[in-house]
Structure to design on (616 residues):
């Protein structure tokens, strides 16, 4: 028994080291900008860079828009599939997995061909149009995560009975989704939102090929031209992503509690 | 004019017809139970009244209005579900006030009505509690309050007691009946529990395989079952195979024992096989005043049920169950012992198959 636990710890520590050592090394390197001793100069340099502020701000805005559009599209879709068209679920599962299978570069080339300035819907003909296209691209990219998060959330509640209880009380479909369904799956929806945010904030391929001033291309540019700042940016990106993941964990504690009791 | 008028209601799923041209009419303020086994179509009828299922044909009228084509949220009905279906994100006050809020009742009036409702269901001061903080019985009472708060035209109860423990079930059904009487609200109650239906209904619709087997007051349903199904489904019943001996003398042979059956139809023919039914509680061990018929058999089994002892007596091919009160001073009969059971001839019914 003890022997078993010893090897379990060895494997665990080896695995942990695989992830932690490069991270610690990167962090250590990011502190070495000033020769001879550790400092946060590289971080100060990053934060004071106006390009950092604009690209980061841009990606945050695009990320928030992608989250909102994602919720507006996915929540009603999952709701209706669960309620009225359960036979469509395998199709939905398949479609929402496609963004994981089709590389982002294929997606963006498809977009450029379909929505170029000489097409019927010339999204890429203007900056605003391209921004809209970018938001939709991110909604698509985050679909596997958003769909699953929302679907899991809906599984925890009795969608049909709650819908019927609200209907018989006089509520219409919009009132049911906004007042009953959405609040009860909010934790799941927010989990999907944080995953979307984590994906969007560092995404490079689509933003770069659509030529948008996003954080991903900025990271790449800094990485190619500077020494210490990329390490600092890597750590900052990690903190943002982990923060988003940590929020999902925290939110899990606020999930609706079951009230199925027989007493 | 009937308050609830269901006529020729049919529901089919593909080739499977689950409700087959059902019609009934009830007056305002009645407590009606749809009683039957699983899959008999009772819940489907309730769901069609609520608007959750569309009838394949037939009409549903409530208070003179044809509601067959209306959406559930336009029908002005209240409903309580088996699984409580309280909104987990709303507290008790908001749950009860949900329908009022939807219909635009001002907040002040809503608060007062919620407080009234909580008083009615015996949970005053529970406004701020959440469903998960309450017992199943309390949740179902809140669900009842939510259903009646907007003053619906009719209350629909879809097996509201099934998810509860036995003791809570009894107390809550009495409470539901008391509230229903106080408000005078027409109520349709779906259940598969015959005791529940018998104890709280004004009238019962006994259903089987999509059809109405019998419609009547609990007393009539129990004492005068019209079909074999009703007789066996409602209450305990002994079915005895017998042969007509002499129709004129109203005698039948029951495993070789000839007895007189006053209810034997005049149209019976000698030698015809018939089924006699008798409730366990009308049979007695040994002679008893008013019991003019006697049957002899052997004790096959004795089951102790607390206040009641159920004895199975083999008469030959037929086996009858009889219930007798537990007498602490006397030992129950032994298995294999010969026994005489008596009954009044009028309690023997001849069933149509």
């Amino acid at each position: 028994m003890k022997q078993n636990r010893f090897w379990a710890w060895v494997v665990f520590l080896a695995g942990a080291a695989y992830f932690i050592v490069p991270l610690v090394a990167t962090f250590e390197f990011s502190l070495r900008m000033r020769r001879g001793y550790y400092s946060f100069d590289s971080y100060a340099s990053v934060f004071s860079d106006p390009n950092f502020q604009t690209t980061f701000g841009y990606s945050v805005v695009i990320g928030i828009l992608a989250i909102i559009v994602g919720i507006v599209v996915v929540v009603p879709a999952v709701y209706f599939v669960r309620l009225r068209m359960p036979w469509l679920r395998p199709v939905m599962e398949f479609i929402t997995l496609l963004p994981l299978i089709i590389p982002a570069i294929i997606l963006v080339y498809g977009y450029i061909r379909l929505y170029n300035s000489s097409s019927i819907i010339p999204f890429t003909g203007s900056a605003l149009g391209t921004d809209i296209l970018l938001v939709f691209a991110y909604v698509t990219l985050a679909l596997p995560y958003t769909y699953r998060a929302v679907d899991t959330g809906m599984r925890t509640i009795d969608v049909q009975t709650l819908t019927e209880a609200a209907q018989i009380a006089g509520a219409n479909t919009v009132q049911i989704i906004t007042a009953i369904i959405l609040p009860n799956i909010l934790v799941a929806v927010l989990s999907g939102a944080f995953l979307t945010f984590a994906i969007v904030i560092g995404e490079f391929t689509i933003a770069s090929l659509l030529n948008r001033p996003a954080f991903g291309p900025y990271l790449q540019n800094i990485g190619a031209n500077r020494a210490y700042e990329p390490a600092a940016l890597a750590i900052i990106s990690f903190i943002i992503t982990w923060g988003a993941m940590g929020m999902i964990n925290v939110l899990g504690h606020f999930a609706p509690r079951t009230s199925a009791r027989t007493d | 004019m009937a308050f609830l008028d269901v006529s020729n209601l049919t529901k089919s799923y593909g080739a499977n017809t689950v409700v087959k041209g059902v019609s009934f009419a009830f007056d305002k303020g009645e407590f009606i139970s749809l009683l039957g086994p699983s899959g008999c179509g009772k819940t489907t009828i309730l769901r069609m009244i609520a608007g959750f299922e569309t009838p394949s044909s037939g009409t549903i009228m409530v208070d003179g209005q044809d509601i067959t084509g209306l959406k559930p949220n336009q029908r002005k009905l209240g409903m309580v579900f088996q699984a409580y279906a309280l909104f987990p994100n709303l507290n008790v006050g908001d749950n009860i006030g949900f329908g009022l809020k939807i219909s635009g009742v001002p907040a002040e009036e809503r608060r007062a009505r919620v407080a009234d409702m909580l008083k009615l269901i015996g949970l005053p001061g529970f406004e701020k509690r959440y469903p998960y903080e309450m017992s199943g019985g309390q949740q179902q009472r809140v669900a009842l309050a939510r259903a009646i708060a907007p003053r619906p035209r009719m209350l629909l109860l879809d097996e509201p007691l099934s998810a509860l423990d036995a003791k809570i079930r009894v107390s809550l059904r009495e409470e539901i009946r008391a509230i229903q009487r106080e408000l005078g609200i027409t109520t349709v109650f779906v259940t598969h529990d015959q005791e529940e239906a018998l104890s709280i209904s004004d009238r019962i619709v006994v259903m089987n395989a999509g059809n109405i087997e019998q419609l009547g007051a609990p007393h009539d349903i129990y004492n005068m079952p019209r079909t074999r199904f009703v007789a066996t489904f409602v209450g305990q019943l002994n079915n005895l195979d017998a042969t007509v001996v002499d129709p004129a003398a109203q005698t039948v042979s029951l495993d070789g024992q000839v007895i007189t059956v006053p209810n034997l139809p005049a149209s019976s023919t000698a030698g015809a096989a018939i089924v006699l039914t008798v409730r366990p509680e009308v049979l007695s061990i040994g002679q008893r005043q008013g019991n003019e018929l006697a049957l002899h058999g052997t004790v096959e089994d004795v089951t102790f049920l607390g206040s009641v002892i159920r004895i199975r007596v083999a008469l030959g091919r037929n086996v009858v169950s009889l219930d007798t009160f537990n007498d602490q001073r006397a030992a129950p009969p032994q298995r294999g012992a010969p026994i005489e059971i008596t009954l009044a001839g009028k309690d023997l019914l001849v069933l149509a198959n």
